[in-house]
Each structure stands twice: as C-alpha cells, then as structure tokens.
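Long-time lurker, first post. I've been practising inverse folding by hand and with some scripts of my own, and I keep getting stuck on stretches where the structure tokens seem ambiguous. Below is the full token string for one chain I'm working on. Before anyone asks, I'm not after the true native sequence, just a reasonable design that respects the backbone. If someone could post their per-position residues I'd love to compare against what I wrote down in my notebook.
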C-alpha cells in the first residue's frame, strides 16, 4: 500500500511540474511581450489610413460605379463613412454592417486599431 501511495504521489508531483507552465495562447508564448502594432504614434490619413483603405477597399469602392453605391478614395468620402460609423462597423465585421472586404477575412487587428484611432481623433486630413 505504501508503494502505491508513493507512486501516486510521485506521478502527481511530476505532472504538476510538467503542466504548470503550459500556455495555450500563441501570442503569449511566442510574442515575448512585444507588439509590432504601433498605435501610439500619430496616425495620419495620408501615410497610414489611406494606404490601408487602398489595399482593401478602393478596388471595389471607387471609380464611376463603386460597389454598393459606396464611394471611397477621397478624404471627404472616407471621413463621411468614418463619422457615420459605417467604416469601422464594416471593417470590424460588427453586427448590422456588411462585413468588408466582401468574401475575405477582415483586416488584421492592427490595421483596424489604426483606423479606429484615426476615427477617434476626428478623421483629420493629414
């Protein structure tokens, strides 16, 4: 009986050491506390927001026949969508908005955070 208790105790101790430091989140395990997403710097329309929108939105939402009648590509048009909440709602795939880009995964979290910061700062044309 003492041998069984000793074996169970030994297994419990070894199991505790083996599994006590397990992480199931890759960003915690591999990120080492740093983030490559810089939202602390100034976010400008011309150097940050517009390139993101060009990459994901303008191919469908510009020109003489923009998809869904939603025209983008100028600061005035992009700001109007930002102010009414449609820009953030669609790129963040929020309920009540058509998820964009259509048929694709949403923008990465960093891009969305940068656009959100620009919107929250008043959507300036800088």
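-- Answer (accepted) --
I ran through it position by position. Result:
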């Amino acid at each position: 009986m003492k041998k069984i208790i000793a074996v169970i105790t030994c297994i419990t101790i070894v199991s505790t050491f083996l599994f006590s430091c397990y992480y199931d989140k890759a960003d915690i395990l591999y990120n080492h506390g740093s983030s490559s997403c810089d939202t602390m710097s100034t976010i400008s329309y011309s150097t940050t927001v517009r390139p993101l929108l060009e990459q994901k939105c303008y191919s469908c939402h510009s020109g003489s026949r923009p998809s869904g009648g939603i025209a983008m590509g100028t600061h005035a048009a992009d700001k109007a969508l930002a102010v009414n909440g449609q820009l953030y709602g669609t790129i963040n795939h929020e309920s009540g908005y058509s998820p964009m880009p259509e048929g694709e995964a949403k923008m990465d979290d960093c891009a969305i955070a940068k656009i959100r910061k620009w919107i929250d700062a008043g959507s300036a044309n800088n």
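A couple of notes from the structure itself: Residues 2-31 form one domain. The mean pLDDT is 83. Happy to go over any region you disagree with.
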